[in-house]
Every structure is written in structure tokens, then in C-alpha cells.
Specification:
287 residues, mainly alpha, 13 helices, 71% helix
């Protein structure tokens, strides 16, 4: 009988934690570095909002200071999950190909994509996950206590927020594993992290900033329907912050939810096909 995948994942997680805690000073330093970057990011936008209560996203979008920081906290949560569970393994994939150790992964009686995706966890990156939760919780309570147009949060809202974050993580994982799979053809994809950073930099802001000008609308269309990363943080952040509350909302917000769900399923299937295609092109070290 095969060991359940969840137990295997827990084994990977435990081994990674033991390895990270073997160098506690380095573990603590990585956590401090990660949190420091997030705090500086928060401070940067605080400086911008000090000039006024509305960031230059567009009139009538509802992304004022508190709403935007809920969005920012959501981005931190998603980023930390991706960087904890998937980034170290995606970076290691090209090294497995170069050294020929991918042969050993292919011989193991477990799905290769699962093995490649979860072998190693980078626990220090999870520090921003908790910081993101604190930021979202603080600014959500700030909006709920607002005397004018207070925010209403129900258990269903929180549940949907969690579900939509999970869908967003699936989209980001799918993009990452697809990029990592190109290592089979490129040999050593050392620029994976840089390409990943440049690509995902577009999803770190509310989508309204792209809805202007020919270039903006082109980027909006590409990252909405071709590589659907704009819905990754926008949908869960909108669910929690409700930037258009009290104004009747927008008819397309329900379609954004549908798009995120479809994008999560479609991107996962596409990434699976890309990964299998890459493995079919792989030539073992012994060949």
C-alpha cells in the first residue's frame, strides 16, 4: 500500500524544518530580512498615502488607504506561501537536470511533479505570511470601525477569502512550475527567479492601474486572460476589503470570481501538460 501523499508531504516539511533549524542564526536572519522588506514596502506606501487618501489608481475604484493595505497584505500572504513551498523546489529543478539526479526522482514510486514540487520547504519565507495576516486583520478592523460606510465581514466572507487565496496560489504555482519545466530544454535556467519576479511584479497592484491607455489595456488583457495573474490577489482582496461597498459594486466583480476559479483549474492542467511534455523531452544522464 502506498503511503498517502499528505504523510509524505509532512515528512518533507519536517525534514526541511530540521535542516533550517540546524542553523538557527541563519533562520532568524532570513526571517528578519523577509519581514524588514515587507515593512519597508508598507512604509513606502504610507509615504504615498500621506499625500492624500487615494493612491493614483483611478477615481471611483474605492482603493483608499485601508483597502489598499488589505490588498498589500493579501499579496504578502500569497507570496510567502509560494516562496515557502514552491520557489526552492523550482530553483532546484534545473540543478537536478544538470547533475542527472532527476533520474532518481523518476525512478521513485510517486508522482514526479509532486516530488519535484514539495521536496524542500523554505520555512523562513513563512514569516511574511503571518505579517500579512496581521496587516489584513488590522486594516479590516479599521474599516469595520469606520463611522461612515463601515465594512461588514461575515464568516462566509472569511471562508471565501481563504478559498480565493488558495485558487490564487494554484495559479502562481502553475506559472512557476511551467517556467521551471523549461530547464529541460535550456539546461540551466538560472534566471528563473528574475523572470518570476519581473512577471509577478504586475500582480502586486490593483488591476485598475492598467485600465488606461493602449499599453495599459494590453497588459491588462495579457495578464488577465493569457497569463491570468491579475486575478490572483485582486479577487481575494476585493472579497475582504470590498472597495466598492455601498456604491452598488460593479457587474464584472462576479465575473472576476468565476475567472479566478476557471484560471486556477485551467492553469493547473496546462502546467501539468507542460511538465509532462518536458519530461518526455528529458534525456537521462545515462543516455
Amino acid at each position: 500500500m502506498h503511503t498517502p501523499w499528505f504523510k509524505i508531504f509532512l515528512t518533507f516539511a519536517r525534514n526541511s524544518l530540521v535542516r533550517d533549524m540546524s542553523f538557527r542564526a541563519n533562520f532568524i536572519l532570513q526571517c528578519i530580512t523577509s519581514v524588514s522588506w515587507a515593512i519597508m514596502n508598507w512604509a513606502f506606501f504610507k509615504i504615498i498615502f500621506a499625500q492624500g487618501n487615494a493612491i493614483a489608481i483611478g477615481k471611483g475604484t474605492g482603493w483608499n488607504e485601508s483597502e489598499f493595505f488589505i490588498f498589500l497584505g493579501t499579496v504578502w500572504i500569497i507570496n510567502s506561501i509560494v516562496q515557502t513551498f514552491f520557489m526552492p523546489n523550482a530553483e532546484e529543478f534545473s540543478e537536478l537536470i544538470r547533475t542527472g539526479n532527476l533520474d532518481f526522482a523518476l525512478l521513485k514510486p510517486i508522482d514526479t511533479q509532486f516530488l519535484i514540487s514539495f521536496t524542500r520547504l523554505n520555512w523562513p519565507s513563512l514569516a511574511n505570511f503571518f505579517l500579512g495576516i496581521l496587516v489584513v486583520a488590522f486594516y479590516t478592523m479599521t474599516l469595520m470601525r469606520s463611522e461612515s460606510n463601515p465594512l461588514t465581514i461575515t464568516p462566509l466572507t472569511v471562508l471565501l477569502y481563504v478559498v480565493f487565496i488558495a485558487c490564487g496560489v494554484v495559479v502562481m504555482y502553475s506559472v512557476m512550475i511551467s517556467l521551471a519545466s523549461t530547464s529541460v530544454w535550456l539546461g540551466r535556467n538560472q534566471n528563473l527567479y528574475m523572470l518570476w519576479f519581473y512577471l509577478t511584479n504586475f500582480y502586486r497592484y490593483p488591476m485598475e492601474i492598467y485600465q488606461r491607455g493602449a499599453i495599459g489595456w494590453t497588459l491588462w488583457g495579457f495578464f488577465m486572460f493569457i497569463v491570468p495573474i491579475l486575478v490572483v490577489a485582486n479577487v481575494p482582496a476585493r472579497t475582504m476589503a470590498q472597495p466598492l461597498r455601498g456604491s452598488g459594486g460593479a457587474w464584472w466583480e462576479n465575473w472576476l470570481i468565476l475567472l479566478l476559479v476557471v484560471a486556477a483549474g485551467a492553469s493547473l492542467m496546462v502546467s501539468r501538460r507542460v511538465f509532462r511534455w518536458a519530461l518526455a523531452s528529458y534525456r537521462s544522464a545515462s543516455s
